[in-house]
Records
---
Amino acid sequence: MTDTPLLKVRDVSKFYGNRIGCSNVAFDLWPGEVLAIVGESGSGKTTLLNCLSTRLMPTTGTVEYQMRDGGYRDLYHMTEAERRFLMRTDWGFVHQNPADGLRMTVSAGANVGERLMAIGDRHYGKIRETASNWLERVEINTDRIDDQPRAFSGGMRQRLQIARNLVTGPRLVFMDEPTGGLDVSVQARLLDLVRGLVNDLGLSAIVVTHDLAVARLLSHRMMVMKDGHVIEQGLTDRVLDDPREPYTQLLVSSILQV
Amino acid sequence: MSEEVSHHAGLASYNFAYLDEQTKRMIRRAILKAIAIPGYQVPFASREMPMPYGWGTGGVQVTASIIGMEDVLKVIDQGADDTTNAVSIRAFFRKVANVAVTTHTKDATIIQTRHRIPEEKLRENQVLVYQVPIPEPLRFLEPRETETRKMHALEEYGLMHVKLYEDIAKNGRIATTYAYPVKVAGRYVMDPSPTPKFDNPKMHMSEALQLFGAGREKRIYAVPPFTEVVSLDFEDHPFEIQKFDKPCALCGAENVYLDEVILDDRGGRMFVCSDTDHCEERREQGHAGHLLGKQKEAAE
Amino acid sequence: MATPLVVSEVSKSFTMHLRDGLRLPVVANVSFSVASGECVVLGGPSGIGKSSILKMLYGNYAVDAGQILIAHKDRIIDIASADPRSVLEVRRTTLGYVSQFLRTVPRVATVDVVAEPLIARGVAAEQARERAAELLQKLNLPRDLWQLPPATFSGGEQQRVNIARSFITDHRILLLDEPTASLDAANRAVVVEMIRAKKAAGVALLGIFHDEEVREAVGDRILDVSQFSPRKIAA
């Protein structure tokens, strides 16, 4: 177990005039840890995710990330070039709609290989082989390597997006409703895949979801948000099995049993 | 300084080389910036020219800004001095600048070109002005100008290799044969204009100054003399120029770019030098290709 | 060597906010300890809070007051106040739990479910699966079920998977919630033997055993949870 957190979040708030996007969020994220941010629409969870992943500048607060050399950098004191580089190598971002995270008019192989080419890989054969291995890993038939994602189903596109993000061995992956909009059976398969990959690769992840089952399956820790505030957080199974706050109890009891 | 250069009755008088001095200043500044940052696309306030967009307005503006009374101008289109565009542009500059013109590459100080680089090696006192339709090499993969500017600024060129990767995946080799992207001075990726990739090596470490003008897109860029220009490729799919299996049918030249000319409706064709000046010179020197050889025999 | 498990003045109640804040006390002032090689049985009528105590010890339930001290590697960790990361670390190496219900990931094969805790501790996958196979064999789980996910198994089969998964490592403390409830006599005997082996290896066990026979066979002493109950249950 390492001694230092990967991400240090302090007092992150985002205001839109008087309206609260998210307020006073603080936590540490450690290597290999998966944190679920759970809430209903309007809870501020996506705002928070965007503040953490440098897609949205917070009004107050700091987000510090531990670089590969061990030193911490304040993400909002980095140059845009540094941030973009980080986004392409050390981080991943899985969008809810896979089309937002893929190049739809470029082949699956090129989608997976792009980050490698962006960091200077110049051997076509090796790039293609790496792409092929990743397709296999996310359970996409490798003979589809030259097909465009336009021809893929939703679940396949999502898995391709995951491969595209993981090819450079990121240490932190952000996921925004990764199973949103997918059929139930497809969801199960995807979650299982993500869980396996996170485990095998020792990834840290921050997963925004409104689906408590996703949180249960994927995350070690959970944060429940309502109206921009974190109202409860802790070990995932503790929050789900012994919810203390009224809103959390409401959420947990609202899940339909099949 | 304003000079009346029109000799024809009824024509309005123009400033030397058509553009007013302020405009020339503005364009020269853009050119200097471009030279200072090789391969970087400098925006400029492209003027209305007496030919429509798509007919070389960018190249004409660059030429007009640098041409002086002592200059000798050559204009080629697809390598030939005698095609319509080349002829019109040459006539235009004769009219508005009254400069000497030539078809001989060796004798020119400014060469304006569309889609070819002359076969003759260019020298220190020469400027090559290219006509460019779309200056942005990433445009077809990333339509947003905001994004492509960032990519150039941050040297994020992964996407360029994605295009080449796709080529190889689809065609087994890099299928781009013209407007083949290059990296200039190890920094900016540039579109060399729709010259055939055959000409790319000529851009590398040239003694001449190379200027690029895109009138409709309002961009100027440059490659200063003795600058590294490297065509993008993969380690296992290196850049290769086109090879022709026959020499020029008229002058017998090898290792030059050839045009295909259809002779009849029975599939008869010949391959001749695209660079008409080069071909003429060789023939004057006595070289003869297989077609010319036959004609000589028939004559004898 | 420190006592593996010490529970000190633990209290818990549930506040049901959806029922206008109805407060349900569960246990109060729970104090006891379990020594290495000992198996303590939690006794008392149904609903008295036995399962809740196990869940609190595992960190699955929060406590209102008190301490739950686990001897973890060379430190003492208080589960009641530890941060999630520490609790997970304790669960990974020191504290095991056989729950009443098996909650599994949809597509993972039984043998992998059982092998997972070993793999999480750095054991090579092949070796872990071999060990898992041994345990499943011992528990008489039919071989042709090993490659299937356990979700569709019978109660007894799932329970055996649960047991295998918790017994496969060398956790120093094991919490057992009705481990033999759905098992037939033969398999009960197997589990008894496995518990005995753990005791001999110095593991501290705390369990709820419905079955009288099993209780007799493995229990060293009974801890009556009624003494901690704030509610008076009618006899």
---
Amino acid sequence: MEDLSLHILDIIENSIAAGATNIEVEIDEKVMENLLIIKIKDNGKGMDRRTLHKALDPFYTTKKTRSVGLGLSMLAQASKEADGSFDIKSKPGEGTDITARFVYNHIDRKPLGNMAETIAACLVSLQSGMDLRYRHRKDNSEFLFDTKKIKKVLSGVSINNAEIISFLKKHIEVGLNEIAKKEK
Amino acid sequence: MKKLKIGDLEKIRDKVRRTAVLRQGRSRAKITVHMGTCGIAAGARDILSALMQEIEKKKLNDVIVTTSGCAGLCSREPMATVEITDKPPVKYVDLTKEKIKKILEQHIIKGSIVSEYALAVGSERTH
């Protein structure tokens, strides 16, 4: 994976596959503290202790289509390479909570990448009844995107429409540009 | 880029409501982009993005786009499956932005399979 936004997309796809109806993504760029924190939380089917114990083993997967399970282990590896840490909590029937920390200016810290494109891709994947909340902070500035609010405006029209997704992608790009500018 | 307003989304919503085929309803085609770890690492997000842009540009309101996990052939990612109503599904492999645009034009719009990019015709059907 070239950047962290692709890892995030991969983890969100896991949440969707786990039947989550609420997915929360938080990105905290604490530039002053030289720290980047990524949190992904879902209320999907979760994992039992045995599965959780093996979740970071790249040669373990619950999938039937292939014999390797690289997603979580690659994000854990990316945080490790940037002198960070990786934490995963999960309970069957309750969901999964992932936190990856990175030293912000570490030479081996992957770039964050295109988060607008990642969230837009997730909107295509979301089934009806699923919601995604994305909060992005950069020091004291914040951008918030919540499909629950968007769905209220759409009042029954599906979010999975090319024109709507294109609009929302631009909305996220503008929002992220604004918080980046405020910090400068 | 100027700030986007909720009012702009309301306008799009009203337009979509007038023209869109409901997701649960009958549509011309369904395209599934495979977004497992392998697909994402190979560039599936770019394929999906190019596909959505092209669908918006061509104003195709009767095409469903969705995603799924790994299809089991990681070395041939990015992959997509095209299902035209009442026709067998076709799996396309080793995709690029240019290839998916051609598939949309030739297969979805004109109904002719792009055989040079296709892995197989048949297998599972979801549409």
